[in-house]
Amino acid sequence: MQILQNLVEMTGHRDHVRLEVSVLSTMQQLPHVTNVRALELSEQAEGTLIRPRTWLQDGEILSSDCEASSDQRGQPLHTLPPLAECIQQARSSARHSDGPHHHVLWLPVWMHNKARTCLEITQSRPFSTQRIEVLQGIFRVYQNYQSLLDYSERDALTGLLNRKTFDEQFIRFASLEANASVAAAPHSLSDEVPQQWLAVVDIDHFKQVNDRFGHLFGDEVLILVANLLRASFRTQDRIFRFGGEEFVILLRAASLKEAHQVFERFRKTVESHAFPQLGQITVSLGFTSTRLCSPVEILGQSDQALYYAKQHGRNQVCHYESLVAEGALGHQVAHDDVELF
Ligand SMILES: Nc1nc2c(ncn2[C@@H]2O[C@H](COP(=O)(O)OP(=O)(O)OP(=O)(O)O)[C@@H](O)[C@H]2O)c(=O)[nH]1
Questions:
Q1: 10 Å Cβ neighbour count for 5?
Q2: 76, 92, 121, 158: most buried by Cβ count inside 10 Å?
Q3: Total domain count for the chain?
Q4: EC no. (predicted)?
Q5: 15: domain range?
Q6: What ipTM is given for this predicted complex?
Q7: Helix axes 295-311, 163-180, angle to 10 degrees
Q8: Residue whose CB lies within 8 A of the most ligand 1 atoms, among 162, 207, 241, for a mutation test
Q9: Does residue 245 carry a catalytic annotation?
């Protein structure tokens, strides 16, 4: 009965992290469970890393509020061989016993053929068949509900994250970033601190595609561009379809140079892609650093850089602060210049 009540509570959430906290508290209440964690898997230059995103501490379930790439508690996936093998073979669970009172069960959350999260349950007794059935039952409800949440966060045409999700995630992220940067050094173009960049991408002369080939064909082009976006960025970078033929990318990069290179590489990928019937299409991209500004200002700055790219020949990447430093843009975007949220 307690489990049923917990399941009702679990499915009342509209947020991935709160749902995760809820499923872990449900599992933690089972007898002999000594620890529960949700591990996040992320692809980094040095290989797949795992870090605890939600965990049990002093009887309370806590969640990390920092980005995976800046979390010091990440460890290489290969340091947990049974889990690494389970992920590599796309299996639904793995188990490991480390002494008579330490038994671990891992349940990876598979979505779009990728496991980005894995639940970890530790018990002081070996897992009985019945216990595994109960845990897997709870896990299936949780996973189905995660899929529903995921579906509501995505754009139906391209499968990218939608504008609503951007508004929710970016406002939350920007307030975390603002708090973190209170003690940070003043911003300069040559800073080498890992930071986030926001780019607005717009397909050039897309209206002509629709006019010549029809709206349905235009939709196919949007899907192809979305696929190129997915292939060009890492899984921890977030890509949104913002509306129409406009996309937004949130990228983590160590320097302006690196961010510029990554965006430039994407521009070239689109330029050199052979689109059926169309041949070549191009994109313009405006980007800015997300530090020390409000979400409205950040979007406004990227939009200004994009507008500049469009006005100066299209098929190019423009960086807002560089344009301002060169005197190419008239003025910095103020709060009331743009109204987006
Ligand atoms: N096929 C399709 N077209 C869309 C969708 N959303 C917006 N569009 C079209 O995208 C086009 C955008 O055109 P504009 O913003 O005028 O500019 P453009 O032709 O892309 O030219 P520049 O941006 O100036 O390079 C319009 O024709 C819209 O109808 C969509 O979901 N599917």
A1: 10
A2: 121
A3: 2
A4: 2.7.7.65
A5: 2-152
A6: 0.93
A7: 110
A8: 207
A9: yes
